[in-house]
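pinging the channel bc i need a second pair of eyes. not urgent but kinda urgent?? the chain im working w is below, pasted from the shared doc
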Amino acid sequence: MATRTKYLTNKDLLAEIHRSKNTFCSYVDPEYNQYDLIVPSLEKINIRTTAEAKRNRATRLAKQAHAEAVEAAGKKLPAKQFEIDYKKIAKEDVVFRVMTFEHIPEDLTRKKTKKSTADSHVKVNFPPFQHWKFDDKGNLICVGKSHWVGGMENGHFDGKCGKATNDLARMWMKLCDRYATRGNVRGYTYNDEMKGQAILQLAQIGLQFDESKSNNPFAYYTAAVTNSFVRIINIEKRNQNIRDDILEMNGMNPSWTRQEQGRDNGMTQPRGESDTKEKS
């Protein structure tokens, strides 16, 4: 029986991005690495957002329980019987991801013109955040920080303490390999150079995907890969035009592409051949 091809999905990509970012983070307890809602600031944590976080947590736990039951039973099971009432989720159980630069050291010399908060801080490889939750007394406490090593109070900033997971790196390579087979790019002789540039680009910006703004990393990565392929094509075309100009200046035939362009523009023969006949 033939095995089915495993395609990349946003769900898998989001999971690996989350695991990769966690290698750059420090938490009071490992269970606090999973957030239930992303908010832009602590001021946005209120009754409404807490209820939304409870619903998200109930949905996530229900899906997790359903998936584990299906795997154990080896057959399909109705998901409805695993539903959880979000009102039964305690306020102290939900975790908020707060997008903030508060724990990132300032660097006022990095950019002269500061257009955003990030320009006033040390450059990091993805938008920094903190994880917050309610304690038993109803007070918000910080339970996790990105780009951090050690405790929340006695730890220190470290922007290079983690790395992308091997699975995420393989996903990047698989995405580039599949894109390279498209009809509009697979015929180029420098197809490998385009793939190499795309993989390099993903390694540089792959973790910059911001989950607070989108849940579609596949589109984000595809756009980056497309730009990398187009960049290499433009560079190769520019180099080819320079070679053709040099060949024509020396009375030699340019590339076949230049000759075809000349015929389309009304020239009956390559310029190199006409120059040779005039000299003879």
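so The CA atoms of residues 234 and 240 lie 10 Å apart. and The chain is about 45% helix and 10% strand. — does that match what u expected or am i reading it wrong
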